[in-house]
Amino acid sequence: MSSLMPLAIALGVTLVVTLARLSGTVDSDVAWQLWIAGRIHAGANLYTDVIETNPPLWFWMAIPVERAAAIFHMGIESALVIAIGISVALALAATDRLTRFFEPVQRSLFLAYAALMLAVMPWMHVGQREQIVLIATLPYAALITARHRGDTVSPHLAFLVGTGAALGFALKHYFLAIPASLELWLIASAWRQWRPIRPETCALVCAGIVYAAAIVLLEPDFITRIVPLLRLAYGVFGAPSVRFLFGPFAVVGLATLAVVATQWRTLASGRAPLAAALAVAGAVFATVYFVQFKGWLYHSIPMIGCGSLALAALLAEARTTRLLRILAPAALAVPLALSVQEIANSDGPSADLANAVAGLQPGDSVGFLTTETAVPWSVTLQGGFRYASRYNGFWMMRAIIRDELSGTGDPRLEALGRQIVAETVADFTCIPPARIIVTRPRPGEATFDILPFFLRDARFGALLSHYRIRSRTSVETYELVTPFSAPTAGCRHGV
């Protein structure tokens, strides 16, 4: 088999998957990310005109995607899918260069499976930070493996892999544990050959310094406004119980890592160094999953991805037991089967929400009152609507109401509640929504009702008087019937 054939097969798989994915849309978080990129290009200031809780790198990444979509007159979701496909192809090309110690057949099978794990398994969550960090981790783990083996690596390739990995690891501070753990593994397994100053470590450190400086210089509002908001109100925004953390993807990821761990003698002996490096990364991603304590499915993507890739690498690198070789194909197929099941069970926005936006045209403005960010961002980008609020959703209301019900009376949370309502009145006055859509509890449902909270402010009541009820379902819809003039000054930029 030609030495080029393994990569050619993997790139072919990536191309087919990318073309198949072009027709779909994106999840609510990614829709918000792409919308923000467009607002930044239009002149909006992140963290003031648009309130977002995450650091800016993910949104900066979306700006060239948004520009490419505009230049080539294509949908922004399609442009993102192509960008992710290119990223997967680059990761596979780097991994191919760094795993030439595999036999060609084994390398072909491993890279083809890696293409499926990087591009197919996160299908419903394309563009999420967890998919991006998984894409970045594979070639970086392969590079650390090459260092472990003492292989000669081109400094240019090492620097490029390190730079790509730095962009992935910088997306969340939790992810910084991955390069740290891989470095500790390298020290422990090859301490005599270990050198701290290498092209990839220089790339990681330089990228970190540049990114930190960019936040301070370009987005100081993240530090002065968003970090205090997170410390005040984000703590209650998590899983309702520990049981919620053990969804199908998380369980499969943990089970796969456990299967790999049964081969600890092979991993410890150095006969399967890539499998060992990926297993280390997978174990740390599993820890990160539980530390975040959200239980959201996409949080488990790098855990299940690294675990499955570790198992695939183990089969490619070393002799294993016959039982494992019999069971491994089924174990490797389970994550892909789960992804297919998720795709099959995804039917888009609820019927109530679809009815709430029925009849609206691209460019029509919409306003939402909801604590669930998935509600507005499963229809807004897709429908081409103009989004009236600076907030992607009022998730902070959970902390405000919890404090109110407990009787604690934290003045900071009380002030935050008043501020949010006042800002929403200003936003809806500047961009009068054609419809205001409110998630409300059904009769007998004991959950927070956001509308009465907003109606405590007489200014919001006066604004809502310009609307009439259009429908009363799980999302209550108000239609604008009495137009009001938007102010000519004092409104946000670029929205």
Looking across the biggest beta sheet, what order are the strands in? 2-1-3-5-4
Number of strands: 5
Tally of contiguous helical segments: 21
The structural domain count equals 2
Question: What is the string of SSEs from the N terminus onward?
Answer: HHHHHHHHHHHHHHHHEHEHHEHHEE
Shape type: elongated
Characterize the largest beta sheet: strand count, sense, and whether it forms a barrel: 5 strands, mixed
Summed over residues and divided by their number, the pLDDT gives a mean of 94
Which residue ranges are poorly predicted, with pLDDT under 50 across at least 5 consecutive positions? none
Distance between the termini: 55 Å
| Percentage beta strand | under 5%
> How would you classify the helix and strand content by structural class?
mainly alpha
Alpha carbon gyration radius = 24 Å
Helix content: 55-70%
In short:
By secondary structure, the protein is mainly alpha-helical. Helices cover 61% and strands 5% of the residues.
Describe the structure in your own words:
- It is a single chain.
- The chain has 495 residues and is mainly α.
- It folds into 2 domains: 341 residues, no CATH class; 130 residues, no CATH class.
- Helix content is 61%, strand content 5%.
- The chain contains 21 helices and 5 strands.
- Strand 4 and strand 5 form a beta hairpin.
- The chain starts with a helix and ends in a 15-residue tail after the last strand.
- 42% of the residues are buried.
- The mean pLDDT is 94.
